[in-house]
Design a protein that fits this description.
By secondary structure, this protein is α/β, with parallel strands linked by helices. The protein folds into 2 domains: about 120 residues, Response regulator (Rossmann fold, 3-Layer(aba) Sandwich), CATH 3.40.50.2300; about 100 residues, Winged helix-like DNA-binding domain superfamily/Winged helix DNA-binding domain (Arc Repressor Mutant, subunit A). It is about 40% helix and about 20% strand. It is built from 8 helices and 12 strands. The strands form 3 sheets. The protein has a 5-stranded parallel β-sheet, with helices on both faces. Strands 6-7-8-9 form a 4-stranded antiparallel β-sheet, covered by helices on one side. A hairpin with a 3-residue loop joins strand 11 and strand 12. Helix 6 packs across helix 8. The radius of gyration is 20 Å and the shape is elongated.
């Protein structure tokens, strides 16, 4: 699955250069030239990383969040500083929540290496074995057992269950599940998630009395633990 990178760069020439090369290196680049548009895209698309040139205050707003708006406040941010940037600019960027800072002029290869390093740093290795109630989910073999009995699952249902089980009782928004399990970048009008969740619930019903897959109306899905 490609990595979605939000590029907020006010200089058209630099933005075009970065968009072209980052796309060639396998990133899905969403480009804008101003901070307000960057915040709107962060809310709509939930990028994996933000590359921010220009308005430092956008980084602070991403981290703090705003009433009535929803984006991933933990999204990694790399700030591209101005040519005259010094140690004070670097400190200010980190104070506002930046994960890394690179002053201009910069070498593209160095920027690419920093992007990949930040993504590795914020992406912990997934837990191989997850146990929730009677469920034992083995990511390495992609097997599910319920009360010791093997329950075969199609690939998407397994991925959905593993995602929900990664944080039991946490409510996962629909757009996040569609992005992480199906690779969608925009939720649009689709019944894909609801259909798979319903089929997964029916498969589990044949092996346990606990529904497990719980629909939180208007929000998303979470796991329901036995007795809760």
């Amino acid at each position: 699955m490609s990595c979605a990178l939000l590029l907020a760069e006010p200089e058209a020439e630099t933005g075009g250069f970065l968009e072209r090369h980052l796309s060639e290196d396998g990133f899905e680049v969403l480009r804008t030239e101003d901070g307000e548009s960057a915040l709107s895209l962060a809310e709509q698309v939930r990028p994996d990383l933000v590359l921010l040139g220009g308005e430092l205050d956008v980084c602070r707003r991403l981290r703090e969040g705003e009433p009535g708006r929803s984006w991933n406040r933990d999204v990694p941010v790399i700030v591209l500083g101005p040519k005259e940037a010094d140690a004070v600019d670097r400190v200010r960027a980190f104070d506002r929540g930046a994960d890394d800072f690179l002053a201009r002029p910069f070498m593209y290869d160095e920027l690419l290496a920093r992007i990949r390093a930040v993504l590795r740093r914020v992406s912990p290795a997934p837990q191989t074995l997850i146990e929730v109630g009677e469920l034992v989910i083995d990511r390495s073999t992609r097997c599910l057992t319920v009360g010791g009995e093997l329950v075969p699952l199609p690939a998407r249902q397994f991925d959905l269950l593993a995602k929900l089980a990664s944080r039991p009782t946490h409510v996962f928004p629909k757009d996040e599940l569609l992005k992480d399990v199906w690779g969608y970048r925009s939720i649009g009008r689709t019944r894909t998630l609801d259909s798979h969740a319903s089929r997964l619930r029916r498969r589990l019903a044949g092996a346990t009395d606990t529904p497990y897959v719980l629909n939180i109306w208007g929000v998303g899905y979470r796991l329901m633990l036995p007795g809760g």
